[in-house]
């Protein structure tokens, strides 16, 4: 880093702080103390044109570390900067902007696995379309024309303030190529931890907007505008950017809803319990890798918990009121080691999507997709009351319900797909069998 570039950067940021300049801040709508806290405010949905691009027939695979329980968070590693340095990022399909805790200098930063990112002096200017995409319509003001300021607030009360920069990302593709490309990311120099804080270097935004990493890579012709993930029930798994890693004919597909364009949403779903309809047919569902658990609105949640309690009457299970791992837990005659020990007591659930069409698709939820075994050896319900965390009528399909499934978000075809996956093996190409 050149001395004069560093000096100019420091003066710019210190001037920003002294003058109290800030970008428009929006409030996130999802999450609570059980949420990982990296769920970012949804930004305006920006369509990405794919006309005329000659994309490489390859993808980027990012191994995942972490689990739903007991860690309660996931991370992937990206190598950023010159020379490239590794950073652990929380992959979030519910947010667009990728950012790192940044020594620019850092005013307030939280504990992180690696030294804070040191930015170069390649600032994204305020009038850049990527900067405009980070602000709600009508709220984008350029008090500092030479830089793009952002401020985001997390669902758990955490927040990040910073500026947008461009830097080098060292990427490994499944066709064997390694390539360095410049992408925009946030330099977060002022962070407040939320209630569900986990030490992390930053966030990998995988949403639908123009500023997301997959959108930028797609615009550069490096991958198709497709992302996906396969989270193992044993912990770990992988995310991927681009296509070519799955046989589309073996995937169950449903359209993304045109009514909920800011989220990966198939629209309305019907809740099925034990193979029977519950009468809840208008559940607005969102697939969200930024949420460890699944959420239903208050009415559906109350129905489900009442139904479960009736189903468990006479079974060798009773509520474990002393276990506060999750709101509802049960204990047996002896501690359970895994969900297989209790499968016979719990029936499968499902979400049936119709979207106003004659044909329907169904997202299956076997007991492994909605139960955990706590550290006390009790079985706990991993479906939570969204009404208690401000979700109102929205419902979330969280990581617990997407385990051991390949889940795909095809932004070009506007489809969401899923199928069983061997999430313990990293795929290399479509010819690599993971089903």
UniProtKB/TrEMBL annotation:
<feature type="active site">
    <location>
        <position position="92"/>
    </location>
</feature>
<dbReference type="Pfam" id="PF14543">
    <property type="entry name" value="TAXi_N"/>
</dbReference>
<feature type="active site">
    <location>
        <position position="288"/>
    </location>
</feature>
<dbReference type="GO" id="GO:0006508">
    <property type="term" value="P:proteolysis"/>
</dbReference>
<keyword id="KW-0378">Hydrolase</keyword>
<dbReference type="InterPro" id="IPR033121">
    <property type="entry name" value="PEPTIDASE_A1"/>
</dbReference>
<dbReference type="InterPro" id="IPR001461">
    <property type="entry name" value="Aspartic_peptidase_A1"/>
</dbReference>
<dbReference type="InterPro" id="IPR032861">
    <property type="entry name" value="TAXi_N"/>
</dbReference>
<keyword id="KW-0645">Protease</keyword>
<keyword id="KW-0064">Aspartyl protease</keyword>
<comment type="similarity">
    <text>Belongs to the peptidase A1 family.</text>
</comment>
<protein>
    <recommendedName>
        <fullName>Aspartic proteinase Asp1</fullName>
    </recommendedName>
</protein>
<dbReference type="InterPro" id="IPR032799">
    <property type="entry name" value="TAXi_C"/>
</dbReference>
<keyword id="KW-0732">Signal</keyword>
<keyword id="KW-0677">Repeat</keyword>
<dbReference type="GO" id="GO:0004190">
    <property type="term" value="F:aspartic-type endopeptidase activity"/>
</dbReference>
<feature type="domain" description="Peptidase A1">
    <location>
        <begin position="74"/>
        <end position="419"/>
    </location>
</feature>
<feature type="signal peptide">
    <location>
        <begin position="1"/>
        <end position="28"/>
    </location>
</feature>
<dbReference type="InterPro" id="IPR021109">
    <property type="entry name" value="Peptidase_aspartic_dom_sf"/>
</dbReference>
<dbReference type="Pfam" id="PF14541">
    <property type="entry name" value="TAXi_C"/>
</dbReference>
């Amino acid at each position: 880093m050149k001395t004069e570039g560093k000096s100019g950067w420091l003066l710019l940021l210190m001037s920003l702080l002294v003058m109290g300049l800030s970008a428009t801040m929006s409030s996130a709508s999802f999450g609570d103390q059980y949420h990982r806290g990296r769920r970012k405010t949804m930004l305006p949905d920006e369509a990405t044109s794919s006309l005329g691009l000659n994309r490489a027939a390859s993808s980027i695979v990012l191994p995942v570390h972490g689990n739903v329980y007991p860690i309660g968070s996931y991370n992937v590693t990206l190598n950023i900067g010159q020379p490239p340095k590794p950073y652990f990022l929380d992959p979030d399909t519910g947010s667009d902007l990728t950012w790192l805790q940044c020594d620019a200098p850092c005013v307030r930063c939280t504990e992180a696995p690696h030294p804070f990112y040191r930015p170069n002096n390649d600032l994204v200017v305020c009038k850049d379309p990527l900067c405009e995409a980070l602000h709600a319509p009508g709220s984008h003001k350029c008090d500092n024309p030479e830089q793009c300021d952002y401020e985001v607030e997390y669902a758990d009360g955490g927040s990040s303030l910073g500026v947008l920069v461009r830097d080098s990302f060292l990427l490994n593709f499944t066709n064997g190529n390694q390539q360095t490309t410049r992408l925009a990311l946030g330099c977060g120099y002022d962070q407040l931890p939320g209630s569900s804080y986990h030490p992390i270097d930053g966030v990998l935004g995988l949403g639908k907007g123009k500023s997301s990493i997959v959108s930028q890579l797609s615009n550069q012709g490096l991958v198709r505008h497709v992302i996906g993930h396969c989270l193992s029930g044993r912990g770990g798994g992988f995310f991927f950017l681009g296509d070519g890693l799955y046989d589309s004919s073996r995937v169950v597909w449903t359209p993304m809803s045109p009514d909920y364009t800011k989220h990966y949403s198939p629209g309305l779903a019907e809740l099925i319990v034990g193979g029977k309809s519950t009468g809840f047919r208008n559940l607005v569902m969102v697939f969200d890798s930024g949420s460890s658990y699944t959420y239903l609105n208050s009415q559906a949640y109350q129905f489900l918990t009442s139904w479960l309690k009736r189903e468990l009457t006479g079974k060798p299970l009773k509520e474990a009121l002393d276990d506060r791992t999750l709101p509802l837990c049960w204990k047996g005659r002896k501690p359970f080691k895994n969900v297989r020990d209790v499968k016979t007591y719990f029936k499968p659930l499902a979400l049936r999507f119709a979207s106003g069409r004659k044909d329907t698709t169904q997202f299956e939820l076997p007991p492994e997709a909605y139960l955990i075994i706590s550290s006390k050896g009790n079985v706990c319900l991993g479906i939570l009351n969204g009404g208690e965390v401000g979700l109102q009528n929205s419902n979330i399909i969280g990581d617990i319900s997407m385990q051991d499934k390949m889940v795909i978000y095809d932004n070009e075809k506007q489809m969401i797909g899923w199928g069983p996956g061997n999430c313990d093996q990293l795929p290399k190409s479509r010819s690599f069998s993971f089903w």
